[in-house]
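Example: Guanine deaminase.
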Amino acid sequence: MTDQKYVFYGTIIDTPDPSTLRIRKEHICVVNKGRIELIQPFANRNLDEHQDVTFIHLSESQFICPGFVDLHCHAPQYRQAGSATEVPLLEWLRKFTFPNEARCSDPLYARDLYTKLVSRLLRNGTTTTQYFATIHLEATKILAEICQEKGQRAYIGKVCADQNSPDFYVETTDESIRNTEELIHYVHQMQKGRDVAGMNALIHPVITPRFIPTCSINLLSQLGQLAKKHDVHVQSHIAETADEVAFVHDLYPSIGNGRDVAIFRETGLLTSKAVFAHGIYLADNEVDEMVASGSAVASCPIANFLFSKGLTAIEHCTKRGLNVGLGTDIGGAYASSMLPVMRAAVFAHRTMDFVSFDRSHAALPCFPEHKDAVIDFKFAYYLATLGGARALNIDSQIGSFEVEKQFDALLIDCNVESQAFDYWKDDEMDILFEKWMNAGDDRNIAGVWVQGVKVG
Ligand code: GUN
Ligand code: FE
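Written out as structure tokens, the predicted fold is:
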């Protein structure tokens, strides 16, 4: 499968930057051993050169585009996604989420749930996901195995929480560190096996303090040391809601002024491999500090509408140099597909034209007004592909179609039976692409590839 060579002929679409929808019509894209070997305009001689390989001729209603990167997804919460959407964050965690996540102490339950989730995400075109699992080592290993088996690129963390959690869903500091390090070793072993098979690593370990309130400073500091020792990725939540920000300030008023960004910095977790979900209640100097550290934000617009009473100022942050991508935030949000997430990102920024946020309840430093900030469908697609890849430091490998990059791609067909919108033959490719993004769904996804391997 991996050394198979094949050639697409037709339209290739990607977003090499936030304002460019690059449409390469009548091109060939040669994929060899999982990588893009060549992209060039079609000429008849191409056919002779590639006689021995599989030739995939795309029709006028079809194009290929990069697969989605979901930067922030809680795997166990797939079970609850779509419910309890009217409850504030801290109450939602206590009443619904901790009891739900605790069920993953049963490996059989976790295997069934994670199998369903990963299949669903691949079907929706998500070729890379950064996951929070639960505090359970065994179930987290199972998630890693399922992603490897099904062929999804995955960044996977065992959740760490040694305080402010119920008795049935908490660990000691030592357990948290020991199990995190064991997960790192386990995933690194998995990577070695794949190297032998001639493929690059698909699965990566992530150090995952849930959020500052559930972590002692001792735990955060030891996790910071582990991040350095093993040079691995980090993920957490940052400045998500006014309640959360106030809670952190009450807990640790003397560490970095009681602010999330400073506490992550002081404990060694604000690294160039760190991705923090949300980042709504950030002051400009904190954004600048994140930029200087090379860390990134996963904006989760659906969850932000439901929990945060605010939005990630994506355009403002990207202009200041911050790497931003998008996340589903299953199951604080209800969608498992990145299509509604991209639409929500567009809507969120439209509301900035006419809503002035009341941040007075938290007495927080805030952004200046964001009038005229525009996120359109191109920008949103960029965020969901190359933006997410940049946040994970893998934009030299995936996120757009360039020679030498790995082939993580979707084949979209805008003329399939019972799709959600009608097809007109005379629509140009840019119109077809925009219609799929705004009105289409997984029924239009006719093929999904990760590292050149067809996975769905
Ligand atoms: N903060 C801490 N845990 C969570 C979680 O599971 N979801 C969201 N959205 N925020 C959190
Ligand atoms: Fe989250």
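The chain has two domains: 5-66+399-454, 68-392.
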